[in-house]
Design brief:
The complex is a heterodimer of chains A (288) and B (430). With 288 residues, chain A is mostly helical. In chain A, 56% of the residues lie in helices and 0% in strands. Chain A contains twelve helices and no strands. The radius of gyration of chain A is 21 Å and the shape is globular. In chain B, strand 26 and strand 27 (359-363) form a beta hairpin. By secondary structure, chain B is mainly beta. The chains are: A mainly alpha (288), B mainly beta (430). Chains A and B meet through helix 1, helix 2, helix 4 and helix 6 of A and strand 6, strand 7 and helix 2 of B.
């Protein structure tokens, strides 16, 4: 897991470089790999934000700012365009991305003194965190297609609550939003991919909340054919595992994990009886 | 101060701890929406050596889980903050807030009961009028003490985002409530409207880069309040200046040290708590790694900085990964403003003496605290050889976090919430 870090082999077949610049190059490439890893991690966190029932706005903002910061630095370095190119080719080895990111904790000026990656005790960790860590290692994070699409959702974290606030003001009674969550995701992805994803800033700017827009066209479907579907399992599994009692009733339908039992919602007399009935029905349907 | 454990109580995960103005009562709120109030035993004249212990006084369900049908989201019943009102009569009043709603609760005692009604029996049944032949005056008879909590006001529907702070004003008539983007001013008697005094919501939500993390009213000046942000800044506002206090009167920010800049700089600078000193001259802010004391007259830097757990600076990446970097620690002053306290991981909490500059790390755990025994100071080993009794950084349990602590307003009694256990420590009597 992350505590151990992944040792990368330095291939000896490269051209001769002096020792100093070799070390410098190593540190630089190590730094950029780790920065990329941090970027991936942040985007996943934002993705999870989106899946949580009520995202913590402060946390979302801080993560989004971190993503922006990385993106700005990468643009400055000139390495952001590589990410955009990779968007079209979508074929990078995942293992390089999942590297211990200790170096990122320090400033660039400081010496990179070799510290062992900390062994944070995960025993008795909150359930959702353990799942997140395991899946971070197993899911193909390097897929920049999904990365950029995730970026499109950054704005959605807090847009969602804001939109509802507006709706409430207008006293619009909203019908069941069953399935609209899924539409939102797909549409956001489409939108993110149709714009040229040069900067996260642009992706932020293109976001809109959608309800029931037309589905993706065939060109985009090709583009997404490489998307690792285990990603969606990650979403649904994490939706199911994340603070189970806090799930809304419609999230149960998103949850595909067969081992997931319906959340033990504390029953209160007023608004919960319907939810409990729905749970009960879902249990029967899912057969868990 | 050499604290000894006085009592420990287990419950649901505690989410807030607060002494009342006299220190006689201690309120805790938990994740299940319950409020438990402890009361200090009256000191017995005979047993000079025993200080009053805190026993459960009242327990009530303050908030219930709700469902927001428009957003299809659950509203957590977790109590985010409790604030007491100063006592004005025999009853006690407190404000409790979850993410969306604030309630004013009245806690009153009943130790007498009227007996001898004319028109009804002792068990409440109406008496047959024809059988009443005499007239008597009901008499008040003592009964077992009953503590009742009743909701007197419900302040709802004023916050789109999650409430993170409430603070009672020194005029004892108004209070403020702050969520991620707005601060509202309420009158305690009026529940159907509030004034919005701060609004940092951008026109375009995608431009949002900063949120409000905490707010507090000045202890003496009823027109002054402060609010802290996720970017590590504090704004002091004067309500006399304008109806909408978007423009601050004072802006407190410490310039960043460029040599320690990293991708996590902003996150760890985010202020999780702000508290005025009792004197009103200083305020204290807690960010992820440190506690800073600010002089209200000096905006460009804090006057004191205390490192809480600097050894975590090299672990920020893993703490970001497991989300611990977003933990919101609180901090508190002692009654005389000479010491400050805040929590850390592994059930450690730290106390700093502002005068002597000494600090101490203590642990709140059942294993290490026998009642009446002294707490042993703890030390975290940051590198190299670990001495006996030291604990290495890698062995710290990041699930055992002390986020909420409170200090008695007058005495050296502290309350420490360690997940679902409440520890109360008090100073040894010499």
């Amino acid at each position: 897991m992350f505590s151990k870090g992944t040792k990368r082999k330095f291939s000896d077949g490269d051209e001769e470089i002096s020792d100093e610049s070799l070390v410098g190059a190593r540190v630089a490439s190590s730094y950029s790999l780790q920065r990329q890893s941090l970027l991936d991690m942040s985007l996943i966190k934002l993705q999870l934000c989106h899946m949580l029932v009520e995202p913590n706005l402060c946390r979302s903002v801080l993560i989004a700012n971190t993503v922006r910061q990385i993106q700005e630095e990468m643009t400055h370095d000139g390495s952001w365009h590589m990410v955009a190119e990779a968007f079209c080719s979508a074929g990078q080895s995942p293992s390089e991305r999942l590297v211990a990111t200790e170096v990122l904790c320090r400033s660039r000026e400081q010496d990179a003194e070799p510290k062992l990656f900390s062994v944070i005790s995960y025993e008795g960790c909150r359930e959702e965190e353990v799942v997140a860590d395991e899946t971070l290692c197993s899911v193909s994070v390097s897929d920049t297609v999904s990365n950029v699409c995730l970026a499109g959702r950054i704005g959605q974290c807090w847009e969602k609550s804001e939109l509802s606030g507006v709706e409430r003001d207008e006293e619009a009674l909203e019908d069941s939003r069953l399935g609209s969550g899924e539409d939102e995701e797909i549409d956001t992805k489409d939108r993110a991919s149709t714009e040229s994803p040069k900067t996260i800033g642009q992706v932020f700017g293109t976001f809109e909340i959608k309800n029931g827009s037309p589905g993706p066209d065939s060109a985009l479907e090709e583009l997404f054919s490489d998307v690792d579907t285990s990603y969606y399992d990650l979403d649904t599994m994490l939706t199911g595992m994340q603070s189970a009692p806090k799930m809304g009733p419609y999230d149960i339908l998103d949850s595909l994990a067969p081992s997931h039992s319906s959340p033990s919602i504390v029953s209160t007399p007023n608004c919960r009886s319907d939810l409990n009935e729905l749970d009960h029905i879902m249990e029967i349907i899912v057969g868990s | 101060m050499k604290p000894r454990p006085v009592c420990v109580s287990a419950s649901d995960i505690i989410s807030t701890v607060e002494f009342n103005y006299s220190g006689e009562l201690l309120a805790t709120g938990d994740k299940g929406g319950r409020v438990v109030i402890f009361q200090r035993e009256q000191e017995s004249k005979n047993r000079l050596l025993s200080r009053g212990e805190y026993n459960v006084y009242s327990t009530f369900q303050s908030h219930e889980p709700e469902f927001d049908y428009l957003k299809s989201l659950e509203i957590e019943e977790k109590i985010n903050k409790i604030r007491w009102l100063p006592q004005q009569n025999a009853a006690h009043f407190l404000l409790s807030a979850n993410d969306k709603t604030i309630k004013l609760w009245k806690i009153s005692e009943r130790d007498k009961r009227a007996e001898g009604y004319n028109l009804k029996d002792e068990d409440g049944r109406l008496r047959d009028p024809f059988r009443i032949t005499t007239l008597r005056v009901p008499v008040l008879m003592p009964m077992d003490l009953m503590v009742e909590a009743s909701p007197r006001r419900i302040f709802a529907n004023a916050h789109t985002y999650h409430i993170n702070s409430i603070s009672v004003n020194s005029d004892y008539e108004t209070y403020i409530s702050a969520d991620d983007l707005r601060i509202n001013l309420w009158h305690l008697e009026i529940t159907d409207r509030s004034f919005n005094i701060v609004d940092i919501k951008p026109a375009n939500m995608e431009e949002l880069t900063e949120v409000i993390t905490a707010a507090e009213c000045h202890p003496h000046q009823c027109n002054v309040f402060v609010y802290s942000s996720s970017k590590g800044t504090i704004r002091l506002c004067d309500m006399r200046a304008a109806a909408l206090c978007d423009r601050h009167s004072k802006f407190f920010e410490e310039p960043e040290d460029p040599s320690s800049r990293s991708f996590f700089s902003e996150i760890i600078s985010s202020i999780s708590d702000v508290k005025f000193s009792h004197s009103g001259r200083y305020m204290m802010t807690r960010d992820y790694l440190s506690v800073k004391v600010w002089d209200l007259n000096m905006e460009n830097r804090p006057v004191e900085t205390y490192q809480v757990h600097e050894y975590l600076r090299s672990k920020l990446c893993s703490l970001y990964e497991n989300d611990c970097i977003f933990d919101k620690f609180e901090c508190c002053w002692n009654g005389s403003d000479s010491a400050i306290m805040t929590g850390s991981y592994n059930n450690f909490f730290r106390m700093f003496d502002r005068n002597t500059r000494r600090d101490i790390t203590l642990e709140a755990s059942r294993e290490n605290s026998k009642p009446r025994a002294m707490l042993k100071p703890r030390k975290v080993c940051t590198g190299g050889k670990r001495k006996k009794d030291e604990i290495s950084v890698d062995s710290l349990d990041f699930n055992k976090k002390i986020l909420h602590t409170a200090w008695h307003p007058k005495e050296n009694v502290i309350a420490v919430a360690a997940t679902n256990n409440l520890y109360i420590f008090q100073d040894k009597i010499n």
